[in-house]
Amino acid sequence: MGRGKVDLKRIENPTSRHVTFSKRRNGILKKAFELSILCDAEVCLLVFSATGKAYQFASHDTDRTIARYRREVGLLGSNDQYCRTMEFWRNEIEELERTIATTETGLKHLCGEDISTLGMKELKQLERQLKTGVERIRSKKRRIITEHINLLKRKHRALQEGNTRLQKRIKLQELRDASIGTGILDPNPCNAFQQRVVDDGILH
């Protein structure tokens, strides 16, 4: 059976009123906590009982949240400009400190440090991050090695071509020296000129 509809009116019985207050107070404090965690909201809840006892929940500093509320609704005093400036920079510093702390913690986790408090979900996420990082590093290494190998191949081909041209020059020079040594000269100047053109073409 579902709950019946509750009439929203003052509970006359003091005992019932106290019990209802305790239950609903705990419920609304729990909801405020969940809202701050799930939605990353800045929540401040103040509850005063009929006897004047105060109960509160604040996801951040209570004074800071109240000061922020006063600024938002325009409840500013004589020193509010100064207070607002100080409050702004204090918020900025706190935010930077939280960011630095989060970043440092993440770096430690990536180095395998301070992971004793991590649960299975956080460990799996960290493992995925590490695998992604390793794959990127390996890909970069493969690219650098491939580029280096290609450069060495180009240098090797250039050396081979230079060596081939040098061997041809040496062989032609040896043939000329042998011709001169045996006294064999071409009596036709045109043939000598054509042979020189052919030799130059081979060398180049």
- As a percent range, the share of helical residues equals over 70%
Order of helices and strands: HEEHHHH
Strand order within the widest sheet? 1-2
**Which class best fits the helix and strand makeup?**
mainly alpha
Number of strands: 2
User: Which parts are unreliable, with pLDDT below 50 for 5 consecutive residues or more?
Assistant: none
Strand content: under 5%
Overview of the molecule:
About 70% of the residues lie in helices and about 5% in strands. The protein is built from five helices and two strands. The mean pLDDT is about 80.
Give descriptors for this structure.
204 residues, mainly alpha, two-stranded antiparallel sheet, 5 helices
List the helices and strands and how they pair.
Blueprint: H1 14-38, E1 44-48, E2 54-58, H2 62-73, H3 80-110, H4 120-182, H5 189-203
Summarize this, please?
With 204 residues, this protein is mainly alpha-helical. It has helices spanning 14-38, 62-73, 80-110, 120-182, 189-203, and strands at residues 44-48, 54-58.
